[in-house]
Specification:
With 274 residues, the protein is α+β, with helices and mostly antiparallel strands. 36% of the residues lie in helices and 24% in strands. A hairpin with a 6-residue loop joins strand 1 and strand 2.
Amino acid sequence: MDDTSTSPQDAAALLAVAVDVTTAAARLAAARRAEGVEVADTKSSLVDVVTHTDREVESFLRARLAELRPGDGFLGEEGDPDDSSTGLTWVVDPIDGTVNFLYGIPQWAVSVAVVEGGPDPLTWSALAACVVNPLSGEVFTASRGGGAWLGEERLVPSTPASLAESLFATGFSYEADRRVEQAAVVGRLIGQVRDLRRLGAASLDLCAVAAGRLDVYAERGLKPWDHAAGVLVAQEAGAVVRGEEGQAPSGRLVVASAPSVARAADVLLEDARF
């Protein structure tokens, strides 16, 4: 999709909608967390949980966006997608980091992006994004051509001199057998970096690269709603963001790196058979 098909002014207007709905949804999620959490179901495995709040927050976002942006599509984690008649689709994760949310670990977020070109990360062009951590109060935003921001502060990545001075982050599968394989990969790369973090919310990991809090983040197996907003924040901040074999970021692979170590990180990931 041609990135110029929507103007920066249009992207800024879409960002205003994204911020409105995401911050409202974050307030709802935080209020429900304060009341207590109940697991509603499991999905791919016993550790892949969904709470009643996931469903309530997604329903809120769907209804609010239908009111503000009639005709736009909707792709969320918990419900069926809505087709688009406008060429735009809202990609929503009502609670990214549900296990953290369940356990009371303050590293979860509401993540909302609007994309042009349909719900496939390999072909869409993200236009605006908002990621809100309700417990820290941090609001990360980005729009195509408008930069990336944490509140009023423009985001820029870190500038580590080498991988040995770089903080690396990743995530693990919900499937036990796959986690064992991933642990072996980590063993092959952890000695080459400053340290490794597994924080549990992809959207916030990507925003952390944008903010210079992490130097490299890489993960396989993400869903579109996991990375749609965070990828745009990282890209607009100036991080080097890629997918597999030169493609756009997708469930196959998402890598976001500080520019100063991006090439070295790619070599490390290949050598570690990430």
